[in-house]
Amino acid sequence: MASDGDPDWRETRQRAVRAHAAAAQRRREAEQAEAASLVGAFVEEARRRGLATSRLVARSHDGRARYRTGLYGWYIDRAHSRAVDVDGRFHLLTVPRSLRARFLGADPQPDPPPLIIGEGARDGESLPLRTMLQRRLDALESEL
After folding, report:
1. What is the DSSP letter of 58?
2. How far is the CA of 112 from the CAs of 32, 36, 90, in angstroms?
3. Predicted local confidence at residue 122, as pLDDT
4. Residue 48: CB partners within 8 Å, gap ≥ 6?
5. What is the DSSP letter of 138?
6. What share of the chain is helix, strand, coil (3-state, %, to 5)?
7. How is residue 111 annotated by DSSP?
8. Residue 52 carries which DSSP code?
9. Is 47 helix (H, G, I), strand (E, B) or coil?
10. CB-based contacts of 52: which residues, under 8 Å, 6+ apart?
11. How far is Cα 42 from Cα 133, in angstroms, rounded to an integer?
């Protein structure tokens, strides 16, 4: 039986850890590629349907402040905290509170879209990205 101090055991363990990390990275990349494809298809369909875009607004993490952005696109949730811009990029529209952003606006950077929105959140509510995007396409403007 190999012990923790055995060089062969440590090397085998390190190889296993690296292989596991590489497999997890490949899974994440595949999921992000699939989610990006869903977002791209959403933008195409939204344009085809003539779904109106709006100027997107970011909110502070605590929800008390709202900031203008230079982004145009579609909110995909009722809370207006997630959106897809006209270039097909996914955005979480929460930013740190900032006096600068109050005057000059916020610049939320795109995030890799998740396949499951809210996965791992403490409230336990999650929704597949595909479902959220389809709901947005099917919703009337007044519903969001």
Report:
1. E
2. 6, 8, 7
3. 63
4. none
5. H
6. 45, 20, 35
7. B
8. P
9. helix
10. 141
11. 7
Tell me the whole-structure pTM to 2 decimals: 0.80
Tokens standing for 89?
A: 């990029």
Helix axes 7-49, 129-138, angle to 10 degrees: 10
Confidence of residue 140 (pLDDT cuts 50, 70, 90): low
Rounded to whole angstroms, the Cα distance separating 67 from 79 reads 15
Give the mean pLDDT of 86-115.
Answer: 94
Rounded to whole angstroms, the Cα distance separating 77 from 29 reads 24
C-alpha span between 76 and 131 (Å, rounded): 10
Q: CA-CA distance, 144 to 139, in Å (whole number)? A: 7
Amino acid type, 123: D
Which residue spans within the chain are E strands per DSSP?
Answer: 54-60, 66-75, 82-85, 90-92, 94-95, 116-117, 127-128
Alpha helices in 61-138 (DSSP H): 99-104, 129-138
Q: Which long-range contacts (CB under 8 A, 24 or more apart) does 119-127 make?
A: none
